[in-house]
Write a structure and sequence with these properties.
With 459 residues, this protein is α/β, with parallel strands linked by helices. 25% of the residues lie in helices and 21% in strands. Strand 5, helix 7 and strand 6 form a beta-alpha-beta unit.
């Protein structure tokens, strides 16, 4: 899928490409010229992903830290020119699209400025620092007829798309509750005092639209995540990936009517302002009739590697006739109360190549427009092919997982069906309840070194 398709392929971009731009596309051999705004670790990774596509050229990089910008330029094959001020990059009429990979407080303002300048946008998650900015971003996309893609990536993964389609097909009945969790070990950021910014850093530009705070070493590169002024905590950092999957699988497209949250700093005595432990419940009223209400539960612990079922980040979906345990690495478990006659084990249905069931290249999806992952819109993906399952637990797991449940890339890795939990006969499985994946009733204790779950199954 080439430059013309990217420029015309989305609903927001339809009828938005003038003849002069199309003419320039032909002269440029259909290459998309992309500018990078934000040259931290994430920006470098995203830019490298786009640069790996033959029809894309990363034409400029921008960061108020001149050292970051220069080193990022040197990492790219064409060594693009460097800017400190994004406004100079946006003035360049030859640039068609931008990547926004700044700190969170710049996400929506930079994306809005880009749309106003006629650029299409790939903006990293979270798409905004607050709800108001997010709505302004949607308005800017519509007003300027630009395509803006929100970089949560999960909706480009065929594994997740297949799992959500199974839920849509009623594999576990009506999905009434979803649970998302973000569990990992992050260290403290320590305590520091305001000081002079490093040389080569335009700190005023870095603060930009946020309320002014003086430079401080532990609220600058990456550690800005943990400050209200610049970040959204880990719920808006890694947690947003799981929340997006949970909301998609739950099938809700509206805002919740109520949100209840409790949490705090339980592990570290440092300067960060966001909690390291959170439990949040979102209620979706539906149309008000019985059976239409939905709940989404989120939990987060940033001082332990051990999450639900041993996976740091994941989702569980609870339906009226079963449950599904899903992570971005695998469809970890599925139990239906009444299996269909003659159905094969779910795990064997999903066994396939690693490229098929792991993350589809999100940069390719962005260029092709296949993802249709427009911001704030609950899109559906193409129908899945997998529908049936025994009422027992099967796992499809990639072998490239390390101790903490994190994924290491292996070019020859291939998902496999793990049957460490026996695939018992369906009649016996029906006697069990669809609980947390261990038992119908359990109490779990979460420590820094491990998780202990004590369960009790009724006779």
């Amino acid at each position: 899928m080439y430059r013309r398709t990217f420029l015309t392929g989305g609903a927001m971009a339809a009828a938005a490409v003038p003849a002069s731009r199309m003419a320039r596309a032909a002269k440029a051999n259909d290459r998309i010229r992309v500018g990078l705004i934000g040259c931290g670790g994430r920006g470098r990774g995203v830019a490298a992903g786009f640069a790996g596509l033959k029809e894309v050229e990363v034409a400029a990089v921008c960061d108020p830290d001149s050292g970051h910008a220069a080193s990022t330029s040197q990492l790219l094959p064409n060594k693009p020119p460097v800017q400190a001020d994004m406004r100079r990059l946006l003035d360049d009429k030859s640039i068609d699209a931008v990547i926004v990979a700044t700190p969170d407080h710049w996400h929506a303002p930079a994306a809005i400025l880009a749309a106003e300048a006629g650029k299409h946008v790939y903006v990293e998650k979270p798409c905004s620092h607050n709800v108001r900015e997010g709505r302004l971003l949607v308005d800017a996309a519509r007003r300027n007829k630009r395509l803006i893609q929100h970089g949560t990536q999960s909706r480009s993964m065929s594994l997740i798309a297949h799992a959500v389609q199974l839920l849509r097909d009623g594999i576990i009945g009506d999905v009434l509750t979803a649970k998302a969790w973000n569990v990992q070990k992050r260290g403290p950021i320590g305590k520091a005092q305001p000081s002079k910014p490093p040389s080569g850093v335009d700190y005023d530009l870095w603060v930009g639209p946020a309320s002014w705070l003086p430079y401080q070493s532990n609220r600058f590169h990456y550690t800005w995540h943990w400050w209200h002024n610049f970040g959204t905590g880990d719920m808006g950092n890694d947690g947003v990936h799981e929340l997006d999957i949970a909301r998609w699988g739950l099938g809700v497209t509206e805002h919740p009517s109520t949100v209840a949250a409790i949490g705090g700093k339980l592990a570290y005595d440092d300067d960060q302002q966001f909690p390291d432990t959170q439990y949040v419940q979102f209620d979706y009223p539906g149309d008000g009739r019985p059976g239409s209400r939905r709940q989404l539960i989120f939990e987060m612990r940033l001082w332990s590697r051990y999450g639900l079922q041993g996976f740091d980040n994941g989702n569980a979906f609870y339906g009226t006739s079963g449950w599904m345990l899903l992570s971005k690495r695998a469809l970890e478990g599925l139990r239906r109360a009444q299996p269909r006659a003659g159905a094969e084990a779910f795990g064997s249905e999903l066994a396939g190549s690693r490229s098929e069931f792991h993350q589809r290249d999100p940069w390719r999806a962005a260029v092709d427009g296949r993802d249709r992952n427009r911001p704030f819109v609950g899109d559906t993906m193409p129908p899945g092919q997998h529908r049936d399952s025994l009422g027992t637990i099967a796992r499809v797991r990639s072998p490239n997982r390390n101790r903490g449940g994190r994924c290491r890339s292996q070019s020859d890795a291939r998902p496999r069906v793990s049957r460490r939990r026996p695939l018992g006969d369906p009649a016996a499985a029906d006697k069990r309840n669809s609980g947390c994946g261990l038992n119908d009733r359990a109490t779990c204790f979460y420590g820094r070194r491990a998780t202990l779950c004590l369960g009790m199954t009724p006779r």
